[in-house]
Design goal:
By secondary structure, the chain is mostly beta strands. It is 11% helix and 46% strand. The chain has helices at residues 2-36, 109-114, 193-196, 238-242, and strands at 39-45, 54-61, 67-73, 76-82, 95-104, 117-119, 126-145, 152-174, 209-211, 214-219, 229-234, 248-250, 253-255, 264-269, 276-282, 288-293, 298-304, 310-318, 324-329, 337-347, 353-365, 368-376, 385-388, 394-402, 415-424, 431-436, 447-448, 453-454, 457-461.
């Protein structure tokens, strides 16, 4: 009996110790979660100004597949940590990749192939074949990349280029050929300035949208017989490109010539008075938005139905005469709204860049614009994103807020949060706040032992148009 009592008395300290360990672990995990969680800090104004706004995004770490999703809605902040986040890549925005190549002109191909020579290589894994030509075909390849869907690709000629002197072109013969690789066929890889200046490197806006399952791009200028406006991309998938018939030879091997075009751009909506198309977006009820400049530098917003007919037309603003113009639709949480950053840049004779930037907010309902607003913004500090509130009378602007680097660190500037500002459309600011990401807290400077680098945090906003969300 005494031995049993001693045994029980021995268990009591162990139980206390185990309970202490559990409590410590719970506290440690709680503090750790607070360290990586996104928090909202009010800086100035009335937090009630956040009512009616929705802003979604996520926090990621380099060398990690985890995501911390956050949603700011009506002034409340919800967060969710997702380990091995498989859906994160599908939240990226669609984009158009434009590649320019100089392929052998069809009329000169036979002679170029006869004079081709193989360059000695240090390994047997691939071969390089070279030849000389004076006539080249300038080729554009547009790849529309929508996460979660197959890429759609079109290739077309920008016209032949005849050179005064022969130039060397080369191709790499790989064990696993890729018909879309720049050096799959003979290509001029070091064009001179005159050649590069003979055709524009930007012909479409980088942000496409999807309409009835078909990608749509904004063709910017009157070029190659195409008017500024919106065009459907009837492109091929990568497998369909591979399946195209071989129509030439390179080093004695049958290949798909780099000068062979495929796919088409089909006009969808091109306003008669457009001097430059700026940007397009898919809107509510199957409609589309196009912002464009006319010859007087007036920016117009057109709402277009699913058949390509204009159903509303509103003046947005005017921009000064400049060398270049650009526009970007900010990430959105509803397809009834579009907040667009408009920019112009003029280069003075002394080399000084004179920039103008404005922010346009538009809302559509029942086939009409119900909000058309434009305000100036600092060209040196444009908002990363901006959204309209439910009432349509204020904007929530967001900027990345950079944390100071540690004294011994010379790496990339970490982003410690998102600076928020509510601006009524009537002017002024009614609220300022900061979404903090925990860079200043204990667990923020996570370290990856494998890469031996600090896990810097980076922020993105969830787009309405992202891949599976379309």
């Amino acid at each position: 009996m005494p031995k049993t009592n001693r045994f029980r008395r021995g268990l009591a300290p162990l139980g206390v110790l185990a309970l202490a360990v559990v409590l410590l672990c719970t506290a440690w995990l709680h503090l750790g979660w607070r360290a990586i969680d996104v928090t909202l800090e009010d800086l100035a104004g009335d937090p009630a100004a956040l009512r009616g706004f929705t802003l979604n995004g996520r926090l990621n770490w380099n060398f990690s597949h985890d995501s911390l999703h956050f949603s700011l809605h009506d002034g409340y902040l919800d967060t969710e940590l997702v380990f091995d986040d498989e859906d994160a890549p599908f939240l990226d925005r669609p984009i158009v990749s434009t590649v320019q190549t100089y392929a052998i002109a069809t009329a000169e191909r036979a002679a170029a192939e006869r004079s081709a020579t193989e360059v000695p290589q240090l390994s047997d894994s691939d071969r390089t074949v070279q030849t000389v030509v004076t006539r080249l075909d300038r080729m554009y390849t547009l790849s529309v990349i929508v996460p979660g869907q197959e890429n759609r690709i079109v290739r077309f000629s920008a016209g032949e280029l005849t050179l005064d002197e022969p130039v060397m072109v080369e191709s790499q013969v790989l064990d696993s050929p890729n018909e879309l690789y720049t050096l799959y066929d003979y290509s001029w890889i070091n064009p001179d300035t005159a050649a590069r200046n003979s055709w524009p490197d930007s012909i479409v806006d980088a942000r496409p949208f999807v309409l009835d399952g078909v990608p749509v791009v904004c063709w910017e200028q009157d070029y190659l017989g195409k008017a500024p406006g919106l065009y459907r991309v009837n492109g091929l998938t990568e497998d369909e490109v591979v399946a195209l018939p071989r129509d030439g030879t390179r080093g004695g091997e049958d290949i798909l010539c780099g000068s062979t075009g495929f796919g088409t751009l089909e006009p969808f909506y091109c306003p008669d008075d457009a001097a430059q198309a700026l940007v397009g977006a898919a809107m509510a009820d199957g409609s589309s938005l196009l912002l464009y400049l006319d010859a007087d530098n007036t920016v117009w917003a057109d709402l277009v139905d699913g058949s390509g007919n204009r159903i509303d037309h509103q003046q947005v603003t005017s921009l000064p005469v400049a060398d270049s113009y650009s526009a970007e639709v900010k990430t959105r949480t509803t397809d009834r709204d579009a907040v667009v950053s408009l920019s112009s840049m003029d280069l003075s004779p002394s080399g000084t860049e004179n920039r103008t930037s404005r922010l346009a907010a538009l809302r559509v309902a029942d086939g009409k614009f119900t909000v058309v607003h434009c305000q100036d913004q600092d060209p040196a500090n444009t908002a990363v994103t901006a959204v309209l509130n439910a009432e349509g009378n204020a904007l929530l602007l967001a900027w990345f807020h950079d944390a100071p680097l540690p004294a011994a660190d010379n790496g990339n500037q970490p982003e410690d949060g998102i600076l928020l500002e509510v601006r009524p459309l009537t002017g002024g600011a009614s609220y300022r706040g900061l979404l903090r990401t925990g860079t200043d807290r204990d667990w923020s400077n996570l370290y990856d032992a494998y890469s031996q680098q600090r896990k810097d945090r980076y922020l993105t906003f969830d787009p309405l148009e992202g891949g599976n969300l379309t």
